[in-house]
Every structure is written in structure tokens, then in C-alpha cells.
From TrEMBL:
The chain crosses the membrane at residues 12-32, 38-56, 76-98, 150-168. Pfam families: DUF4199 (PF13858). This is DUF4199 domain-containing protein. Keywords: Membrane, Transmembrane, Transmembrane helix. It comes from the Bacteria. InterPro entries: DUF4199 (IPR025250).
């Protein structure tokens, strides 16, 4: 069963990675504004969670409707991990090797969105200037920052994965 769980999670992770990579490339080709759009980000978040849940459901289905908390979480986590690694790799290649100018344009768009958001919260202008300076001083797509971002996403989605696993677990009474 363990091999099947990993196989299911790996397959759904690959599907997720391809979907996320395609969305990144299409957004890049259509308009870089999409990559800084809040609704686009929420849509991506939903896709990640849904594919993680589908992976857990398929794992349960394979095991006659039963999955321990560990199995449910492992299935979810592996799916999300593989998907995010593929997506992160594509973004790294796209913005560091294929079109480095796009990374600078995205940085400017990120600054604009950040300023708009902070002004909406009535943030003092010196705090806004400090935030802008911090964004300007960083390369969003450097290897270190991409790895930090990936780690942050994994922590966030792991918390969601724990909730999903707790909700979807079902112990097999024959094995207890």
C-alpha cells in the first residue's frame, strides 16, 4: 500500500506541477500583471489545495475507503511538494535565464501593489518607503529567495494539509 500511496501522490504532484508551470508561463506570456494579481494568487492557492485533497481521496479509494492520518497527510504533502518544486523550478529558469528583464518588471509591479496595499491600510509614508527600499534591494528570483519562498509555501500548505488529513482520515477497524 505504501508504494501505491507514493505513486498516487507523485502522479498528482506531477499534474499539479505541470498545471502550475503552465499557469506561470501563460500568465508570463499574456500579462505580467497577472502574476501580481491577488485573485490569480487565490486561484492558484485553490488549485493546490484541491489537487492535494484529490490525492488524499484517491489514496483512500485505493485502500477501500481507509487512510490513517499519516497516510492522508503524506499523500497531501508529497503532492504539494512535487507540484511546488516543479513550479518553483520553472519560475527560476524563466526569470533568471530566459527573461531577466521580466523579473525587474515584476519587481516594479510588486512595489506598486505593495504601495497601494499599504496606502489602503493608512500606513505611514516612512514605513511605505522602508518596505519599497527592502523590495528594491532584493532579487525575488535569486536561488536563496526562491528556496525561502518554497519553504514558506510548504509550511503554509503543510498546516492546511494537517487539517485536510485530520478531516479525511478514516481508520480501518480490521487493523486496530
Amino acid at each position: 500500500m505504501e508504494k501505491s500511496l507514493k505513486s498516487i501522490a507523485s502522479n498528482y504532484g506531477l499534474y499539479l506541477g505541470v498545471i502550475l508551470a503552465l499557469f506561470t508561463v501563460v500568465a508570463y506570456a499574456v500579462s505580467l500583471d497577472l502574476l501580481t494579481n491577488m485573485w490569480y494568487g487565490i486561484f492558484i492557492l485553490i488549485i493546490i489545495i484541491v489537487l492535494g485533497i484529490i490525492s488524499v481521496a484517491k489514496t483512500k479509494q485505493l485502500q477501500n475507503g481507509y487512510a490513517s492520518f499519516k497516510e492522508a497527510f503524506t499523500s497531501y504533502f508529497l503532492t504539494v511538494l512535487i507540484g511546488l518544486v516543479i513550479s518553483t523550478f520553472v519560475s527560476y529558469i524563466l526569470f533568471n535565464f530566459i527573461d531577466t528583464d521580466a523579473a525587474e518588471v515584476l519587481k516594479e509591479k510588486t512595489i506598486e501593489k505593495t504601495v497601494q496595499m499599504l496606502e489602503g491600510f493608512n500606513t505611514p509614508s516612512d514605513a511605505i518607503a522602508k518596505s519599497v527600499e527592502q523590495i528594491e534591494s532584493q532579487n525575488q528570483y535569486s536561488l536563496g529567495n526562491i528556496v525561502k519562498g518554497l519553504a514558506g509555501y510548504l509550511v503554509f500548505f503543510s498546516i492546511i494539509g494537517l487539517i485536510v488529513a485530520a478531516a479525511m482520515k478514516k481508520s480501518n477497524p480490521d487493523t486496530e
